[in-house]
Amino acid sequence: MPKYTDINVYAPCPCGSGKKYKFCCLTKDREIKRQKKYQPFTSLENKLKLLPDDVLVMDLNLAENLNLASEKLLAKGKINEALVKLEEAKLKAPLLPTTHNNIANCKYLLGNLEEAISIAEFVIENLDHDNVYTLGNLVHFYLIAGKESLANSHADKLLSLELRDISWLYKKCEAFARLKRHEDVITSIENYTEPLDYIPCHFLAGVAYANANKFDKAITHLEKLKKHHHQYPMAHGCLKKIKKGTGPATLHGDWPYFGTHELISQRLSEKMRESFESLNENPKSVNNFGKKHPIMSEMALIIFNESEGRSSEAVDMLGKVNIPKSNDMLIKITEGKFGSDECRFSACRNLIRNGVWKKETPRKIWANEQWREVILKDYEITREAGIEIEDKNYDIYAQGVEALKNKRWKTAEKTNRKLIVKQPEFAAGYNNLAVALLNQGRSKEASDYLKKAIEVDPSYLFAPSTLVQIYITEDRIDDAEELLKTIVIPEQVHPDAMVCYLSTQVQLYLYKKDFDMAVKILDQALMIAPDNPELKQMSNKFFLLQRMKKIL
To answer: What's phi and psi for 146, nearest 5 deg?
Structure first.
């Protein structure tokens, strides 16, 4: 007697009749089960070790009902309860691929990616080589694990497989969509001969046609989605852009199929985010982060495309992933016009930090609505970056600083003159002397001492920043801009020095009436020193200015 181990009820019956198993020997097998006591097996492996003359009897009805019950529990988010039902279904019909597929989905939803992959691979290798649903799952799982070549090879198998029903069509198209194989999505949709009555298929078809620049067909499919469909917001957004002819407004210029919640499960996302956030505490683990979580580059890309408010977070994420794919995205951000100026500069800094680009190499970057040639250096803002004062001169330096704070300009001048005699290579002494002179109306002398400070230490930011401010008050804007270009930011910079440098740029852009650029740089300064009273006052003025513009 043949062993009825093939539990795909729509496959040809093992008896050789040419009929589907469901419409041939399925009823007879169930009758055999009723006549023979069912032997419970504790594992699938034991079931597969049956003697050749044994008949493996399966309660397909019960197993299918348990699968349906598990799907209802999954819809409510009750994953562990669903797993209980599925383990029972596996005992009743151990070779039913549907059960194993659902178990793999549960493991994936719980964040156990390797286990999900193992189960899906078992189905393909041992139960059903041509199971579209399993192959679709493996494409998704392999992409998350960074195994893109394996994902593509499994997607290739899908090209020639027959579809059991429209749910398999969706799974097939979904796999191609994850790989951005737009033409394969279109071919699968166009070759399907049954009515296309599953709305998610229309969404994938619409996006695929949009990516193929077949916008009439894209509109036809996308308009099928109504407000109660979960993909409606994305479909509606695509439709608006297509009809306006504005394009997708994404980094790569493609129309997206998925949001972040469809890219990976919530549990996996949480695990990866915990790992990502831990990098701040353990920076040495950055090098391995991208290799362990390559899907984070896709997640960062979706965030960058979807939310302007989170674009800086996305760029930071791409920088820490630090794999060829994420660095390519950073290059595209830096060299293009998509996104904010801040994001372009941040992407450039990340490329320098990752060793992709060299420091101090001129780069053309789109900033303030025009192409600019800029030189960026990687630097760290830290309070550990201090001035190098000799111990024997520290008391004199402290007295000079105290005099400046209390606006005792004469005392500050006298004290700092003593200091530069005792330590002539100390840039802060010349700068503080210049500040004392400047507040006595002696700007010419102040400028000379500031130039001396710059000569002694070009990386001491206070001196050139103060000199730029003098040039602005004297309407010497060309000199101010030229001096700003020569400023060298050290690898470690004190936050107060960085704020002084940024504030100087704000003043320059205000003089030039470039309020947008001034606001952007002020925001950077506020990120460094949110409690700085001068920055707060400046920010309030900008706020009032914006209010006045709206009123006018």
So the answer is: 80, 15
Distance between CA atoms of residues 341 and 349, nearest Å: 13
514 is written with which tokens?
């470039």
DSSP states along 229-275: STTHHHHHHHHHHHHHT----STTS------HHHHS-HHHHHHHHHH
Distance set, CA 476 to CA 98, 479, 536 (Å): 76, 5, 27
User: What is the SS3 assignment for 382-398?
Assistant: CCCCCCCCCHHHHHHHH
Instruction: Name 295's bridge partners.
Output: none
pTM above 0.70, yes or no: no
pLDDT tens string 109-150: 999 999 999 999 999 999 999 999 999 999 999 999 999 999
Most confident of 213-217, 479-483, 517-521: 213-217
- Which tokens hold the place of 73? 């529990």
Tell me the C-alpha to C-alpha distance, in Å, between residue 120 and each of 104, 163, 226, 348, 450.
6, 18, 34, 41, 70
366 contacts 405 by C-beta, under 8 angstroms = no
**pLDDT tens digits for 4-14?**
344 455 667 76
Do residues 21 and 9 touch, judged by C-beta distance below 8 A? yes
Three-point CA angle 258, 263, 267, nearest 5°: 145
| CB-count exposure of residue 148 (10 Å: 0-12, 13-18, 19+) | middle
Among the listed residues 456, 206, 485, the one whose alpha carbon sits nearest the alpha carbon of residue 360? 485
Helices (H), 258-381: 260-263, 266-277, 286-292, 296-306, 311-321, 324-335, 341-353
> Among 476, 475, 541, 474, which Cα is nearest to 503's?
541
CA distance 64 to 30: 14
How far is 163 from 132, CA to CA, in rounded Å? 7
Which residue in this structure is represented by tokens 């041939």?
24
67 three-state secondary structure: helix
Which pLDDT belongs to residue 535? 81
Rounded Cα distance between 305 and 137, Å, is: 25
pLDDT of residue 544 exceeding 60, the answer is no
Helix, coil or strand: residue 290: helix
For the chain, give me the number of helices (H) and strands (E)? 29, 4
DSSP 8-state secondary structure symbol assigned to residue 333: H
pLDDT of 465:
94
DSSP character at residue 280: G
Taking the C-alpha atoms of residue 529 and residue 520, their distance in angstroms, rounded to an integer, is 15
Q: Which long-range contacts (CB under 8 A, 24 or more apart) does 228-232 make?
A: 229/199, 229/200, 229/203, 231/199, 231/200, 231/203
- Six-digit token string for 118: 């193992």
Instruction: Tell me what pLDDT residue 107 has.
Output: 95
